[in-house]
Write a structure and sequence with these properties.
Layout lengths: L2 H22 L5 H17 L3 H8 L10
Helix pairs in contact: 1-2, 1-3
Length: 67
């Protein structure tokens, strides 16, 4: 699996998990959802994603967006 797909899977998992936690536990969990959303938004324009850099250091196969 490439870095691009791992980033998308991780981001969507974090959004769904934090939304569920906000619904069942405390609304402050929505701050995680907002953080992930803002990070995805800025990565679309700048190409910088902290998770992609970490995965690159571990030798994960590069994708089309994050090389």
């Amino acid at each position: 699996m490439s870095i691009d797909r791992i980033v998308l899977v991780f981001a969507s998992t974090m959004i769904l998990l934090s939304a569920a936690l906000a619904h069942y536990h405390h609304p402050y969990w929505l701050s995680v959802t907002a953080f992930v959303g803002v990070n995805l938004f800025q990565a679309a324009f700048t190409g910088f994603c902290p998770l992609a850099r970490i995965l690159k250091r571990f030798g994960t196969k590069p994708g089309a967006v994050f090389n």
